[in-house]
C-alpha cells in the first residue's frame, strides 16, 4: 500500500513516515503550499497513492498571525480533499484535527460525542476544517482524528514540554511559564504515529477518533519527574505574557473508540517520554 503523507518533514510527519515504513507501507510525501489550489491539484494528480494521512497545518496556538490558521488548516485542507476526490475517489483520508475543538466545556475524559466549543483561532480553524470536510464524505472515506497534547524528541522548544526539558538539560536556574494550573493528556509522538498507521490499515474505522492516553498530568508532575531525572531544581516564575486567555483547565481524552478500532494500540507513558527526551538531549 502506498500512503500519501502531508507534513512529512514536520515533527509528527517524520515519525509517521518511519512508522509507515516499519509497517511495510510506502510513504509518498506531498510537499506543497496548501493555500495554492492549483499547485495542490498538480501534486495530487501526479502522485501514486492508495490512502492519505493529512498532517500538514499551522499548529502553534499562540501565533499572532491568526488568519494563517484558516488559510492553511481550513481552506488548505479543503483544497487537498477536493484534489484527492478527483484523483482517488473513495480513498480513505485521515485528517488531523485537534482536541482543542472541545474547548473548556467538558470534564473528565472527553469522548468524541462531547459538544465542541473552540475558544481560540487554532481550535476554530480545526473545527471549521472538520465541518468543511464533511462536504466530501460522499466522495471520500474521511477519518477525522482529534489528537490530544503529545510531545517527543525533536519538537520545537516553543512547546511546553520541550521547553521544560531544554531548561533542565541546560541546568537553568529559572524557567518562565504561563498557566500553571492546567492539566493535560500528554501523549508520545511515537504512539501517535502508530495510531495513524493503525487507522490507515484497519478494515473499518470510526469517522471521528480521539488520539489520547486517557490520563492527565499537571505541569508540576512534569517538573517533578525531570527534577528526579536530572537532580536539578529550577525556580518557576509565571510570566503574564505566556498566559493564554481562554485556556482549558483540564483536557483529557477518552481512548475508548481508538482502542475499539485498534485493540493492540498502547500509549507510551509520560515518564518514559520524558526520560527519552531528557536522556537524548543530554547526550547530544
UniProtKB/TrEMBL annotation:
Pfam families: GDP_Man_Dehyd
InterPro entries to which the protein is assigned, alphabetical: NAD(P)-bd_dom, NAD(P)-bd_dom_sf
Residues in NAD(P)-binding domain copies: 30-267
Protein name (record): GDP-6-deoxy-D-talose 4-dehydrogenase
UniProt source species: Sphingobium xenophagum
Taxonomic classification: Bacteria, Pseudomonadati, Pseudomonadota, Alphaproteobacteria, Sphingomonadales
